[in-house]
Amino acid sequence: MTRETEPMSLAGSPLGDTRHVCAFFHSDEEEYGVLLPFIKQGIESGHKAIHVLNPTQRADHMARLGAAGIDVAASEASGQLDLRSNVDTYLHQGRFDADRMVSLFEELATREPGAAFPSSRIVCRMDWAAVGRPFVDDVIEFESRVNDVWRRHDDVVICTYHVGQFGGDAVIDIMRTHPMVIVGGILQRNPFFVPPEAFLPEFRERRRKEARRSAAGV
């Protein structure tokens, strides 16, 4: 894996080799206040911007990018800015398939020599996942598995969660699957992170026990 020499910062702190980030926010205003400088820096540095948004968020998102000084029309026309619906991206044909999503992110991260954009800054809004704990658990497993992709690529991936939409247990598990975290607008190395080779066996066993208790009516 190679790393660019140009300094990269996020939430006011240098961002090193560990680039899979979970970011917890309480509002859109807090989220954009933290992420817009990072997004603009990426556009100006020639990086590809992939933003996976709520379906109803596109117009507001484009307006906020424009207000920050980003030429949205030109960036989209050149292919540098790629706006996608989070529902269409994660719920292909109405279902979440972790294997398909790992393959998709591998495709997004892999570039041929001489590609137009040397790396990507990917921001994924995760509101779509807040529909119930069993579904959230599938997403948590995926968030852990996809670390194997980001270990091998230079891209930055920020998964944004609005904390009021997720239960406390889910928030803890989400944190355990990301090596970097933004809380209170501050980026830091996540002391709760557990590598997938340790996290997944423990998490899957916990899910099996919970399923057996539920089947038994306990």
Provide structural commentary.
The chain is an alpha/beta fold. The protein has one domain (9-215): 3-Layer(aba) Sandwich (Rossmann fold), CATH 3.40.50.300. Helices cover 44% and strands 19% of the residues. It has 9 helices and 9 strands. It has helices at 28-44, 58-67, 72-78, 86-90, 98-109, 133-145, 147-150, 168-176, 196-215, and strands at residues 9-10, 13-14, 20-25, 48-53, 81-85, 120-125, 156-162, 180-183, 186-189. The strands form 2 sheets. The protein has a 7-stranded mixed sheet with strand order 5-4-6-7-3-8-9. A hairpin with a 2-residue loop joins strand 8 and strand 9. It is globular. The N and C termini lie far apart (48 Å).
Helix share bin: 40-55%
Total count of helical runs of at least 4 residues:
9
Assigned CATH superfamily: P-loop containing nucleotide triphosphate hydrolases
Order of helices and strands: EEEHEHHEHHEHHEHEEH
Count of beta strands: 9
Using the CA coordinates, give the radius of gyration: 17 Å
Walk across the major sheet and give the strand order.
5-4-6-7-3-8-9
